[in-house]
Design brief:
alpha/beta, seven-stranded mixed beta sheet, 33% helix, 25% strand, binds flavin-adenine dinucleotide
């Protein structure tokens, strides 16, 4: 029988969170098996914003230079009124920002990030990547775990990580709180080659356009070759049991209030698919025995702070540090949870609050705009807690 330390850490899910955790844990000398449900490791969707708290983790994983060829470093986060086009406020991402947080704000294609993480994982002999492994269950047997997959295969490890995303099957082995919470908002998203852009499309900034009950985000990715767009709105036709809502005709109708720049973007956004927005209430129980949650499986959040993947990256390095510091995985998982759960809960709740603020109407919107009007672009006091975090 192999000694416990000869067994790998099993990670169910090879998304951004699972791969980052694999790299971080392997860098501490342990072997890791990543079991991914899909036939190929890959990402769905387009753009991803990575704030300095995530860039810091990417630097520690040794991949920050590798992402530079795909990254765009925006000048500002620019918030505009979607109807009038007027500026609401902005956050300067230039020299002062970089000096304060030590790392840049990066936007990129999420599949480019995944490819970089994959290449780093493939280059590390301690990491085994197994596609087409749909983990159905994780059993605990004394000082080891066994992951059982849909194809009949099974894997033994000294402990297991559920990095299986928003619809995590393994989460209920740790904490069964039912289905994710539907936010009644949907997102349409897609990219356009920059060569096909219309005049006035903002290529230097991440631009957020808001109006009551909707918002629209635009930024360049893939080294400036593609323009990413995400249009989000709440549907008047929403019903949990009914698929007939948030169709493209409603997208067009809702964004008809937009200024020329917004309508130009909406006319070019992908319509073949939309994503319903979900999150969950934060939980205190992140592990049971030798199984622990990570990323969206632990703390799915609305995307309004652009932090879901950033938090999954943070999880990975904290988990690696905890496993390196404690022989007993149960103790390591408690230390990891203690370091992570209040922070991720704060981001989860803040994301909900951001949604309320972005989508406010009437007096709420006027109050918001009035309060933000005097805010200097280099006031970082509200982002320090988020972007300044270090493992
Ligand atoms: C519209 C939108 C915009 C967003 N924008 C941003 C942003 O700008 N910045 C940011 O930081 N975050 C953003 N996010 C959030 C971010 O996408 C997620 O938080 C992040 O992808 C979570 O990573 P993860 O690895 O935990 O889960 P996932 O990316 O969901 O990966 C889970 C993996 O597990 C696999 N899997 C699932 N079940 C099993 C199983 N049983 N066995 C084996 N494998 C399994 C899946 O195939 C998948 O590969 C956004 C989200 C949305 C919806």
């Amino acid at each position: 029988m192999p000694r416990r330390n000869d067994l790998p850490l099993l990670i169910a899910g090879g998304g951004i969170g699972g791969l980052a955790a694999a790299l971080a844990v392997a860098q501490t000398g342990r072997t890791v098996h990543v079991l991914e449900k899909a036939a190929q490791f890959g990402e769905i969707g387009a753009g991803l914003q990575l704030a300095p708290n995530a860039s810091h983790v990417l630097a520690r994983l040794g991949v920050l230079d590798a992402i530079a060829q795909f990254a765009v470093y925006p000048r500002r986060l620019m918030w505009r009124d979607a109807r009038s086009g007027e500026r609401v406020t902005a956050l300067d991402l230039g020299e002062k920002f970089r000096a304060r947080y030590g790392h840049p704000y990066v936007v990129m294609h999420r599949s480019d990030l995944l490819d970089v993480l994959l290449a780093a994982a493939r280059a590390d002999a301690r990491i085994v990547l197994e596609p087409s492994r749909h983990v159905l269950d994780v059993e605990e047997h004394g000082d080891r775990v066994r992951a059982l997959c849909a194809d009949g295969s099974s894997y033994d490890g000294f402990a297991a990580v559920a990095a299986d995303g928003l619809w995590s099957r393994l989460r209920k082995l740790v904490h069964d709180d039912g289905e994710p919470v539907a936010a009644r908002y949907v997102a349409y998203r897609g990219t356009i080659p920059v060569a096909e852009l219309w005049e006035g499309a903002g290529l230097e900034d991440v631009t957020l356009w808001t109006a009551p009950g909707l918002h629209f985000v635009q930024y360049p990715i893939r080294g400036g070759q593609l323009f990413n767009q995400v249009a989000v709105f709440t549907s008047a036709r929403y019903h949990p049991d009914n698929e007939d809502w948030a169709k493209p005709d409603e997208l067009d109708a809702r964004f008809a209030v937009g200024c020329d720049a917004v309508r130009a973007g909406i006319a070019r956004i992908g319509r073949d698919r939309y994503w319903t927005m979900y999150d969950r209430e934060p939980i205190a129980q992140w592990s049971r025995g030798r199984l622990v949650l990570l990323g969206d499986a632990a703390h799915p959040m609305l995307q309004y702070m652009a932090q879901g993947a950033c938090q999954a990256l943070e999880d990975g390095v904290v988990l690696a540090d905890a496993l390196a510091a404690h022989d007993d995985p149960a103790h390591a998982f408690t230390a990891y949870r203690d370091r992570r759960s209040l922070r991720t809960a704060r981001v989860q709740y803040s994301a909900r609050l951001f949604g309320e603020i972005w989508h406010a109407g009437d007096v709420g919107a006027t109050l918001r705009d009035t309060m933000l009007a005097a805010r200097p672009d280099d006031d970082f006091s509200h982002s320090d807690w988020l972007y300044g975090w270090r493992p």
